[in-house]
Amino acid sequence: MKTDLEWLARAVELSRKCPPSGTAFSVGAVVVGADGVVLAEGYSRETAPHDHAEEAALAKLAAGDERLRTATVYSSLEPCGERASRPRTCAELLVAAGVPRVVVAWREPDLFVTGCQGTALLEAAGVEVVELPELAEEARAVNAHLLG
């Protein structure tokens, strides 16, 4: 079975598929079931200009899919906790889906949102959030055009 680091590397790889944007991060996400099988993958702007990676991945699964209750979501960037383009943030979507565990490479910097609350919202809802900073530099590199 793959390790958290290997799954998170896949999320970073997916972030490289994002159409470029000057106003949003390029992010990849992988939803992995308890059995180590990929349930869904997604990346920012995959099907629409305002798609976020976690949102795109979750949209590929049926609402109420029981496998989500034991799944881990791997995201190259901390799930958003504030959002202007859609009514629900990625943190809210993950909580509503019943996902118990989220692994991230990089905390959202204060570029579009100051003091991202994604991790805090997830943890307040009982979701375990694990940060693997070993891949933060790779996740940042995909977004170098935004960071100057």
What report would you give on this structure?
The protein has helices at 4-15, 53-58, 90-97, 118-124, 136-142, 144-147; strands spanning 28-32, 38-43, 72-75, 101-104, 128-131. With 148 residues, it is of the alpha/beta class. 30% of the residues lie in helices and 16% in strands. The protein has a five-stranded mixed beta sheet with strand order 2-1-3-4-5, with helices on both faces. The chain is globular, with a radius of gyration of 14 Å. A hairpin with a 5-residue loop joins strand 1 (28-32) and strand 2. The termini are far apart. The mean pLDDT is 93. It contains six helices and five strands.
Structural class: alpha/beta
For the residues shown, what is the average pLDDT? 93
Q: Specify the overall morphology.
A: globular
> Low-confidence segments, ≥5 residues, pLDDT <50?
none
Helical content band: 25-40%
Identify the notable features of this structure and list them briefly.
148 residues; alpha/beta; 5-stranded mixed β-sheet; globular
Describe the protein's topology:
Blueprint: H1 4-15, E1 28-32, E2 38-43, H2 53-58, E3 72-75, H3 90-97, E4 101-104, H4 118-124, E5 128-131, H5 136-142, H6 144-147
Parallel strand pairs: 3-4, 4-5
Antiparallel strand pairs: 1-2, 1-3
Helix pairs in contact: 3-4
